[in-house]
Amino acid sequence: MISVEPVGLDDPRVVALWQEFDAELEQLYGEPDIQAPVGPDGVVASLLALADGGEPVGTVLVRWSHHHPDTPGTVEIRRLYVRPRHRGHGHARVMMGAIERAAFRVGATRLVLGTGEAQPEAIALYEGIGYSRIPPFGIFTTYPRAVCMAKSLPTRLLVINGAMGAGKTATASAIRDVLGDAGVRVAFIDADALCQARPEPTNDPYQQHLLMLGLAALAPIYRARGYGCIVVAGVVEDPEDRDRYARAFAGRVGPAQVSVVRVTAADETRAERITAREPPGRWRDFSLARSRELDEILDSLDLDDGVVATDAAPSEEVARQVLDVAGWWVPGAENLAQ
């Protein structure tokens, strides 16, 4: 067994492994490694694999690719290396899994890498975990023995559920900022903005069908712009909604991975928030009544992966709690590759 931990690019153990890797590549191809040195800019994660006794046995890193300007959200895997005497035990597969999780958590939509014809074991590994060959990119375009490969990642969707006045929009917006400030490719969609249309169908008074059509139309746009993490503020009061969201954001790699977290607030808190933002009249009256109704409905349905209260905590604190409950990466609190 091995353990995998994040390390800096200047960690002496990593530097030593890279030197071994360079020597091996030069022996295989008869010339020095063609890839440019790796600098810290754009690095998502640099990982070190350790044997049970603490011996460094392998390394790998992933960084945002500057070779794919037309496909934002692409990350490039570099420097996957396992010491020869530790090969044949699945360590490289474990390390690739860890680096893919790191890429997934920061909103990457596509992974690319380069290897060569003299490394058939590496090619077999990549093909076995879902990578397909693509045209050479970057420096590989000048090297006839290069083999470049890619793998797409599904969209990751976090739906913030809750009654009116519970803090859905404020929480979703704060999540966008917490993740965005940490370099995650993340987008926030306010579901209410997609279903404000009248007259409403008698069999769909809250325009949920219109909402899903709108999300399905928007999903490819966000995907094309490389936003792999999507946060939606919207009510989930139908057991089928989770699957509907997954299908709306589905792509060639399958449905989106959906988490649903409910935010709550006391009746008085919700009423205060609604009263503060809505002028007197029909809409305020509707919102106050609908908030009470929804709170009871959502309690009875229990469709969420977790629940977080918003009454007194600042929005950023709530955002971090929601991310933790959802199983998403919490910047500064968790190893990206875990």
Question: How would you describe this structure in keywords?
Answer:
elongated; Aminopeptidase; five-stranded parallel β-sheet; alpha/beta; 12 strands
Written description of the protein model:
The protein is α/β, with parallel strands linked by helices. It folds into 2 domains: 2-152, Gcn5-related N-acetyltransferase (GNAT) (Aminopeptidase, 3-Layer(aba) Sandwich), CATH 3.40.630.30; 156-326, 3-Layer(aba) Sandwich (Rossmann fold). The protein is 37% helix and 23% strand. It contains 9 helices and 12 strands. It has a 7-stranded mixed sheet with strand order 1-2-3-4-5-7-6, with helices on both faces. Strands 9-10-8-11-12 form a 5-stranded parallel sheet, with helices on both faces. α2 (91-105) links the parallel β4 and β5 (110-116). α4 packs across α9, α5 (208-224) packs parallel to α6 (241-248) and α7 (267-277) packs antiparallel against α8 (282-301). It is elongated and about 80 Å long. The two termini are 15 Å apart. The mean pLDDT is 94.
Itemize the secondary structure elements and their pairings:
Elements (H helix, E strand, L loop, with lengths): L1 E5 L5 H18 L13 E9 L4 E9 L9 E9 L8 H15 L4 E7 L3 H9 L3 E3 L11 E7 L3 E6 L6 H14 L4 E5 L17 H17 L4 E5 L7 H8 L8 E8 L2 H11 L4 H20 L4 E4 L5 H12 L12
Parallel strand pairs: 4-5, 8-10, 8-11, 9-10, 11-12
Antiparallel strand pairs: 1-2, 2-3, 3-4, 5-7, 6-7
The CATH architecture of the largest domain can be given as 3-Layer(aba) Sandwich
Helical proportion, percent range: 25-40%
What class, by secondary structure content?
Answer: alpha/beta
The strand line-up of the biggest sheet is 1-2-3-4-5-7-6
Give the helix tally.
Answer: 9
Distance between the termini: 15 Å
User: Which fold name is given in CATH as the topology of the largest domain?
Assistant: Rossmann fold
How would you sum up the major sheet?
7 strands, mixed
Full CATH superfamily name of the largest domain: P-loop containing nucleotide triphosphate hydrolases
| Record field, number of beta strands | 12
Shape: elongated
Number of domains: 2
Seen as an oligomer or otherwise, the chain set is single chain
Taking all Cα atoms into account, the compactness measure Rg is 24 Å
Order of helices and strands: EHEEEHEHEEEHEHEHEHHEH
The averaged pLDDT comes out at 94
Strand content: 15-25%
CATH class of the largest domain: Alpha Beta
